[in-house]
Specification:
Layout lengths: L8 E6 L6 H13 L6 E5 L1 H10 L6 H14 L19 H25 L6 E2 L22 E2 L2 H7 L16 E8 L5 E5 L7 H7 L10 E4 L2 E5 L8 H7 L5 E7 L12 H13 L4 H27 L7 H18 L3 E8 L15 H21 L3
Parallel strand pairs: 1-2, 1-9, 2-5, 9-10
Antiparallel strand pairs: 3-4, 5-6, 5-8, 7-8
Helix pairs in contact: 1-3, 1-11, 2-3, 3-11, 9-10
Length: 387
């Protein structure tokens, strides 16, 4: 009655985080370049978008499609950042450049936030107050009735360039099994969409990325089911992975856009709000990992008891019906909770300069920097793992 300790699957879990999703792009790029095959990928919000591009890559080169997606977003952003260096006209010291070096990070973040808030991004989300919406939006002149501020339907057309949705269905041969999460607006119940069990469509992707506190709408993903961003419940969908795929043991990579641990206390109110936001969205799966290990120990204990009975009790003294019931209960537990987390690795973005709205920076410099950081962090992790 021993458990089947077969192949271990590699799992990649991607957090949400707006433009910080570019960090996950760098992570996956480094994993792919290292030859690590991901068997199951899960995400919510922008993590769900990243996961869908990886699983359903139209070109068959998911790392290429994912990076192209992020660079397209960057190229379509409105970058309000002024030039970095302007030499002094008289050949003297460049006072502007010196000032910019001191205040440049603050200015860059402020302008990137203003750009996203005012103009959006034409291939991802746009504000409803744009003049061209006057003819198509029946509530254009009644903002008191608005339930959202930004229309993220442009994302649907953008994703068509990168995702083959025929892959994201049962029997569709995706690059990895896809799990994305959302929350039901009416019931507050978690919604889990699994490519092994259903067709994943663009509606599910718009639903998982519809974060209401940033002004995005809910999406009717199925008749009568209205979805909001899954990060409202959990920004790290590891539990959903364990529930959906409970029979195979796992090596797990978790990409953390929001670090759990910081080196110092916040120094001012903006940093206080920033830290509170990070804690809200940070990984909270420690209990899930601990519970998985506890269940594994219990199952091992049951195996030992069964083997002891088999080896030391005469068959005629055992009630065969009770033994059969015990087998059925054991296999039911295995089927529902049998997967063991063999290894778990965290790949975490660093924050040298805490800023509340760094997740709205879609500028080319911001996106490329995040991709580069994700690659570097992943390579460091793999070196430590001797991979």
């Amino acid at each position: 009655m021993t458990r089947n300790h077969g192949d271990v699957e590699n799992v990649l879990v991607l957090q949400g985080g707006g433009s910080l999703g570019a960090f996950s792009c760098g992570v996956f790029k480094a994993l792919a370049e290292s030859g690590i095959k991901i068997d199951l990928i899960a995400g919510t919000s922008i993590g769900g978008i990243n996961a869908a591009i990886i699983a359903g890559s139209r070109s068959g080169r998911p790392e290429f499609d994912l990076q192209r997606f992020w660079l397209d977003l960057a190229e379509n952003s409105i970058d309000l950042t002024p030039p970095v260096a302007m030499p002094g006209s008289n050949g003297g010291p460049d006072y502007y450049s010196q000032y910019y070096q001191q205040a440049g990070i603050t200015l860059k973040h402020a302008l990137s936030f203003y750009s996203s808030a005012m103009y959006g991004n034409n291939i991802m989300f746009v504000p409803r107050w744009r003049p061209d919406y006057a003819a198509t939006d029946p509530q254009y002149f009644r903002p008191q009735q608005w339930t959202y501020v930004y229309d993220h339907s442009p994302l649907a057309a953008t994703l068509e360039k990168y995702i083959d949705y025929n892959k994201l269905r049962p029997g569709g041969s995706p690059n990895a099994r896809l799990i994305i999460t959302a929350v039901d607006v009416l019931t507050a119940q978690p919604l889990t969409f699994d490519s092994v069990k259903q067709q994943i469509t663009v509606k599910h992707l718009l639903g998982t990325s519809g974060y209401p506190l940033y002004g995005f709408p809910w999406v009717e993903v199925e008749k009568g089911v209205y979805a909001w961003d899954g990060s409202l419940l959990s920004n790290t969908p590891l539990r959903e992975v364990m529930d959906a795929a409970p029979t195979k043991d796992k090596n797990v990579f978790i990409v953390e856009n929001y670090p759990k641990v910081i080196d110092r206390l916040p120094q001012n109110l903006p940093e206080v709000f920033h830290r509170a936001r990070d804690i809200m969205f940070s990984d909270k799966t420690a209990h899930n990992v601990k519970l998985s290990k506890v269940i594994t120990r219990y199952l091992q204990f049951i195996e030992e008891l069964y083997e002891t009975i088999q080896d030391n009790v005469e068959p005629g003294k055992i009630d065969s019906q009770k033994l059969d019931k015990m087998k059925k209960k054991y296999h039911k537990i295995i089927h529902e909770h049998g997967a063991e987390i063999k290894k778990i690795e965290y790949i975490t973005r660093e924050e040298d300069f805490p800023y509340l709205y760094e997740n709205t920076d879609f500028t080319p410099d911001g996106i490329k920097s995040l991709i580069k950081e994700g690659e570097a962090k992943t390579k460091q992790t793999l070196e430590k793992m001797n991979l």
